[in-house]
Design a protein that fits this description.
Blueprint lengths: L3 E4 L1 H9 L4 E7 L4 H14 L2 E5 L1 H7 L8 E5 L7 H10 L5 E5 L5 H14 L3 E5 L8 H6 L9 E4 L2 H10 L3 E5 L5 E2 L10 E5 L8 H6 L2 E4 L11 H17 L3
Parallel strand pairs: 2-3, 5-6, 5-10, 6-7, 8-10, 8-11, 9-11
Antiparallel strand pairs: 1-4, 2-4
Helix pairs in contact: 1-2, 5-9
Length: 248
């Protein structure tokens, strides 16, 4: 089974704390010990091998990623099942709060969405197996370690998955710039809900859009009529949190 790499102080530290199976950690030579102390302490407690290496080796291991002087070699990321996400909500005695990402292709967007999802209490994220960013080192780094805590399920067919969620009592709310209702005008967020975030350029696909119970949009006052996918997702996630917490 292939191994994966995790880069960055927060990502590696959270992977250790979350119990991710880690085989080895490389720390760049010359890195201040104080900055890496939480990682070194956790690695020692877990019995994980820590080695020093030339920074250029780390650059080669995770090209294009700001690794901050630390890279971990870990077991492959384990995706969840959709049933696991519903079970996570039930275990907390909460209505399901899920995200469905319709072909989000930029791993930076996926990482940012996972970070906000963790902050807002999302029980899990659903992505398609094809034409979608997968959880990798870039996603982990961008999520600041949240990828270790927010379960992600991969499915073959989003439309079929949405139907099954409906059968479980989950309402599907799609974000669409052409929608008539705004996110502040709906009360669907207070119950079991799955938010659909569309592709960065094209939005939601036709079949996915048709499967939504309700379509909502963000109010726009300027000349630009759309937001970055991860920013839009964050705004809607916090509106769900606001409504569920009873804040005005």
């Amino acid at each position: 089974m292939e191994e994966e790499l995790i880069a960055g102080k927060h990502s590696v530290a959270e992977a250790l704390r979350a119990g991710r199976s880690i085989n080895k950690i490389w720390i760049a030579e010359g890195t201040q010990q104080k900055q890496m102390q939480p990682i070194l302490t956790e690695a020692k407690n877990r019995g994980v091998v820590v080695q020093t290496a030339d920074k250029r080796k780390l650059d080669t291991l995770v090209p294009g990623i700001q690794h901050q002087g630390v890279v971990a070699q870990a077991a492959p990321y384990v995706y969840a099942e959709v049933e696991d996400l519903l079970a996570a909500a039930a275990a907390k005695d909460e209505d399901p709060f899920l995200l469905i990402l319709d072909e989000i292709e930029d791993p930076h967007n996926l990482g940012s969405i996972l970070r906000t999802a963790d902050c807002t209490g999302v029980h899990g994220v659903i992505i398609p197996k094809r034409r979608s960013a997968q959880v990798n080192a870039t996603v982990s780094k961008t999520s600041a370690g949240a990828a270790e805590y927010v379960p992600v399920a991969r499915v073959t067919n989003l439309a079929q998955t949405m139907e099954k969620l409906k059968e479980s009592g989950v309402w599907i709310a799609g974000t669409d710039v052409r929608a008539e209702g705004e996110i502040y005008e709906t009360d669907v967020f207070k119950g079991p809900v799955a938010l659909v975030i569309g592709n960065e350029g094209e939005g939601m696909g036709r079949l996915v859009r048709e499967k939504c119970d309700v379509l909502i949009k963000l109010p726009m006052q300027g000349r630009i009529n759309s937001l970055n996918a991860s920013v839009a997702a964050g705004v809607v996630m916090y509106e769900v949190l606001r409504q569920r917490s009873g804040r005005k």
